[in-house]
Fold each of these.
Amino acid sequence: MFHQNIRVPGVYIFNDNVSGTGNGMQSAPIFCTMSDMSILGMNQSSERAVVFPKYKVIFYANTNFGGTTRTIDNKDGTKCIYENNALNGALSCAVYYGGVEIPNIFSTTGT
Amino acid sequence: MSFLYNNVPIMPGAYLVNGLSSSNNELWQLPIFGSVRNLTSMGFGNVDNFYYIMPGYKIELYRNSEYNALSQTIDNTDGTKIMYKQIVTPSPNPTGIFGDDCNSIKMFYEGVEIANKYTYTIYGQSSGTPPATTPITTLTSGSHKLLNLSLFPGAYLINSPGVGCMAIFFSITSLNTFIDQSGDREDCVLVMPGYKLILYSGNNHTGTYVAINNTEGTTIIVGLSTGVRDLSDNVITGGWTPNNILSCKLFFNGNEVIQTDIAVTQTS
């Protein structure tokens, strides 16, 4: 697949109805390992996830890979994994393709 | 440019983000595939606070619709990483032109504008059985994998104003179950070329429906309900009643994309 091409994410997260406010129906792609997901406006907002084949993601409750974790491992899968148990938010994550971590590829300058 | 279908980009070149760090538990993002002449009709007018832009792309932000009043440019044409940029209000004299003030966007890939890739159309709701679409090709479980269908959302449900945009990879029998979404839902949708989306007012694909067929399309359909404004900023009449769907069906080339064909459910 395409993890070398950073325009194709291996993981999508979904956000549910926020405390009955109607502020839901949300999703966002996860391209790579991120030590602070809030830099992209992802503030403890992952409640569901889809993980593509060959990918693994570990969600952490705190920034810099701290706190409790939730792992979704699809390294050997042939279909997507739809994780439907509430992830209870995350502030950092580690993403792997074929067992190899995809390093952070975000930058304020693009280089 | 890679990842084209019918000459339309099927992966975004940038994402618009609303409300960075204003609170927890939000994920207010809109994928941008090409130039957008009116963000309000797409449910995200004047709500931008942050962008991230893929390598090779440049975007120009305009205060008004139809590319009037350029406010700033974010250029990642020569980038090798994904550029992210917060649109901040400068201190100590905010002028109001930074953030929450963009209503159209021009997008360029390697200097060439990606223009005219969206078609805005009003869709009403109907009752009875939705009309079938004759399959162009036959999909099997193997061909789903071959076509990488699971990698690219076929449609997006947009909650206005600027609240969210949910990627749809397959048919969903209950949005309440899938994403615990029991309140405010969709106001408009994006349907990618090759796909057809049917929205249902009831669970398990029952009730009234809204059918948006882009199976043979060469643009991305922006399906409008009465929950957004038209391109002239007028109240829409004749559109479906928004925030009223409970399930949906997704088709590629006339074949339903069934969840269990491309995804396994895990509750860890």
Note: Chain A touches chain B through 60 residues (CB under 8 Å).
Amino acid sequence: MSSVQGGGRREEGGGIPRVRIGAAFAAAAALVLLPPPSSLLGQDLERGQVLYDKWCVGCHGETGEGDGEAAAFMLPRPRDFTGAVYQIRTTASGELPTDDDLRRVVDVGMPGTAMPGWEDVLSRGERDDVLAYIKTFSRFFDGGSPERIATGRPPRVTDDGLAEGRRLFEEELECIRCHGDAGRGDGTSAPEQTDDWGFPILPADLSENWNFNGGASVEDIYMRLRTGLDGTAMPSQSDVIDAGIITEEQLWQTAQYVESLSPPETPAVRDVIRAARAEGALPSNPDDGGWNQAERYYVPLVGQIIVKPRWFTPAVDGLFVQALHDGERLALKLTWHDASRSPDADWDVYFRGMIRTVADVDGGHVSEQGPDRIAVQLPLALTDGFELPYFLAGDSRRPVYMLQWTSSTDQMQEGTAVGMGTFAAAGGASQLTHAATFADGEWQLQFTRPLTPVDTTQSLTLVMGRPIPIAFFAADGTSGEDHMRGAVSAWYSIYLDVPTPTQVYIAPLVAALLTAALGLLIVRQAQQRERGA
Amino acid sequence: MRRLMATSVFLVLACGGGEGGDGGGGGAAASVAPLGNGTISGVVNFSGSVPANPTIDMGEEPECVEKHGGSPIDPVVVVNDGKLANAFIRVVGGLPAGPYPMPAAPATLNQDGCLYQPRVVGVMVGQTLEIQNSDPLLHNIKAVPTENRGFNISQPREGMSTSRTFTTPEIMVPMECNVHGWMNAYVGVVEHPYFARSGEGGTFTIAGLPAGTYQLEAWHETLGTQTGEATIGPDGTATVEFTFSS
């Protein structure tokens, strides 16, 4: 790129015509001889290595084999650069990625993995230098230019097209074998999948497109279908088109159907979860239509990496929260995706792979699959100050009130805690009710409790009209998450709507009546005056 | 008609190697003449107790179970009368410098009854490997090489056929199906056409060689490798034996 600028630079002071012509020739020659601007040729490899050693080596390792110090705690593992096997490409299965394919991953990262985007950390030039250096780890990069697959344009989205896409997804291409009926990565072949390096991997949850490694647009999805994700079980469908079994348009329809499995907008993360006052009775179970009136709030979760035993590969990376109250009770519904209903014998192969693969330095892995678990915590007492209990289950100074649910026994317990692992179940009769359902890789859990508990030393009075801190914990037994291993949220707030006072409705009515009466009085007086005159 | 006959002769020559019919065999190809017309015949023995092959739970695929008469076995070690099948034998020394003639016919890897047929197949660098689906269900074919570029392609329908080639010699390229985790095959990629797979009777032939002494290596997926030597004399034949044990 710099040569192009140099060759085309205007000669200072005009120069003689012959020189100008020469410069023009040089510029033209440079344009012809130079690789396309997207190529990484001519980068500063030394600077690339310095940057790599600073930013990348911790995960990807000194020799690029994906074996940095942190690698053993990660799943999926950091990329081994030596084989030049890359998931996100615009080239055919088995081909090398283009430089722009590599740039994309470095720029925006790999959502749903530990790989962050570097756009805001390193300059374009620095990122290109690092990429050029990374390419030197593999003998497969020999200076050739891999061919980008031409994809054409997507057809218009129609109901018929989506129905055809669904048919292809379910019957013709049998995507459901891995991705499951609802696309949540819970197909019958899902538990046994490993990547090319033998590490367990899960099929993508196609209903959470914000985690798509290669982007969420229909063009991105189509490209993943065409190229496959090398290094994983996801095959390329290009040969299916070449063999005349499906058309390009049908593959676009498949991509459009996949796109339709996710919400149209990536769920926003909001600080305050509003519990509206329910119209009619509170829902009695997670499938109750009454939940349709409650907004869904997305709460992201991250691995619990502070209190031992820590966990760096959380299975549940977010949940949806809905809340309603009726002035007497609060109903909370949690919805989260989990491909397995733990413990599940069909998933034992995945569980074994997980505990074999993910390093544990905090006391050893559990030896059998545990249950799926959820915990919801609130402060045991509300204070007027801003100070919150420690977000990991509080401490002795500021305990938390906690609700814990376990899939294997389908039990929900109330209690208090003064730190992770200190849960003490509350005594006395519980007024807590709950119901849980599992289908197609999705848990739904509803629980209901009175706003005012019987014993306020063991529970919290839920006050309407003020934000109450709330936080969440989730664990997947099939992924080896036991004890404190799991995913946690930061503190959020839940706000119970205050019932509208009756006077809010009466006052305007009274005002309107008074106004009308006054008007009538004025009119009557005016009429009497006229008559009198 | 003449052209057809010529093609037939060509094919017969091309399929000269290997009991399994899939040896490179040094058959004639258009650009490079055969190096010779000598043949190495061999047998792969097995001594000791034969390890039991695992059964496969194919319950999810009744069509495949049916093809196996109800009780599918994973044919990891196949021994008949002390002879070992599915060993991959190739010449590793003694060859004149190339170029070598390309086998005229493509090699074939078939998915039949949710198993690969054959389990072991050889190709010369650049020779077409034809991958076929004879099952009425979805397979994907994933090649996981280290020296070559891999691939992972979908074959959702019976009768579908896909062709691929390899660029670099590699012993062996594992092939797998991610829909059916039990499916395993191995492709031997060789720089020349002098390779073969031992058939059900443990025998194989490698044809198209000039007179001379050759070093050979036999590979088996779980039993390791064995080496041997064979000298093709003036009569154009040689024999060699390998013995694997458990």
Note: Chain A touches chain B at residues 83, 85, 93-96, 140, 172-174, 177-178, 188-189, 192-193, 196, 228, 230, 232-240, 243, 245 (CB under 8 Å).
Amino acid sequence: MEVSEPVLLILLSLAEQPRHGYAILQDTERMSEGRVQLSTGTLYGALRRLLEDKWIERFKEQDSSRGRQAYRLTAQGRRNLQMEVARLKHLTRVATLRVARKET
Amino acid sequence: MLSLYRSLLHLYPANYRCEYGDEMMDVLSEVQAETRTRSALARIFYGAHEAGGLLYGALREHFRSITGSYDVFSRRRFAMRSEFRFPKATVALMTVILAAVIFAIEKAKAISASVPHANPPVGHIQPAQVTMVPTLLVTMICAIVAAVIGWAILFALRRSGVQQLSEMNPSASQRSGR
């Protein structure tokens, strides 16, 4: 599955703790410093895809009076996220070296 | 605004709406409540953003329900349903057919040029502007009719249970049968 920036932000939001839809929207906006503002339609499209690929799972919040649906990472989702973060780290390291070499 | 969101949610496939409709309305209500304190311009922006997201989401879900994939330009073989696959040979065959049609047209032109004939009398030629509008209208109506027929066929196939059959997992049913 291709991990776009919004999907990566959703996964990072759920990596910290399980969250419900609106909390994910707020957290992704906070993490990207307002640059990524997901709409509800886009968020649920991404969530459904992640659910189908078993990267995340859906459950009913016990402590919520409204019994809202929340989402959390699965073990497979966490593994895939770690791989994606490692890939980005490598890319950042290479990019930093290349840019520094060009400047000197 | 919430009623607009609710009506836009009706554009989603029914099974998607059953699964996520209420949850999405909850989120949309919370977004709406949060933007209530902002300026009118910001509220318009958020409204358009959410409405656009819902429209795009509905389109994606319908596309997925027809093709079985979210990838519009997937590298994988295009599949309308899992049993309705276009084989790779289709592209080659279509190219051959196109080449044959072009060849036939060229041949007809050559025959027409080689055989001497008197030009038939040509009547009054109407200006292009006059004929263009009705032609475009007729083309548009034909396209709409073709789209409706296509959609009806897909809808009928869906209703007839072809999709359910294609999504059956024989190994899972065998396992549960044991």
Note: The helical segments of chain B are 2-9, 14-35, 40-67, 89-114, 128-159, 162-167, 170-177.
